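Okay, any thoughts on this one?
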Amino acid sequence: MTSTPDRTSAQTVRRAMQALKLIASGTSDGMRLADVAKALNFERPTAHRLLKALVAEGMLTQHPGSRRYALGSLVFELGLNATHQFNLVDICRPTLNALAEQTGDTTFLFVRSGNDAVCLARVQGPYPIQTPAVPVGARQPLGVNAGGLALLSALSEREALEITQAVAPRLTIYGNLSPEHIMEHWTKAQASGYALIGNRAVPGVTAMGLPVINEKGKPIAAITVAATNSRMTQERIDEILPLLRLATEALSRKL
């Protein structure tokens, strides 16, 4: 049975979106053609044609030396055009500012996009030593950073298992993280009531987070606080947790 033109076009669009999300979740150095093809289970010629088309449209760029693919300028332009429609960051900014001031550390706002957590905002606190941090706009698989783990912890075990299996091919770059490791963190988050993970999204950094839950009981965002491993002791976690809870509860009411 041959594919209809509409079905073929829809499949191409889906593949293009998969490739864009994958490359967005990687490092600023970009991704190799072979890695994209393997992670998405595409034939190499198919992946090559798709990536070349996205480069031609400005959605991707290819570094001349390494030949790696990274997000292109058009993605940034489209993002700027879309920001006026979404005021989530504006609503959350005062809460993030207050939390950063209270804790002294860096605070973050994350939202879910498919199987990924996307960083929407970051506020540095007054503590002299701040952490190398996940940049605004970065996309990582759910469970890799504290924001993604907080969002994942608000889902059922079945949903969490499905997501961790789906992102499994992308986890090895995060300190050989595995789906089993993420589910261990999910279980701990369920037991403790908060997400905690270190040395994964950013080496040397530990972060804790909580989901922002809407009136239907669904996670719509997550707030995290990050510090160096040596600073994020259990005593500090116990100090930060009440402040983090108050912040997420305040945002739940606002949103």
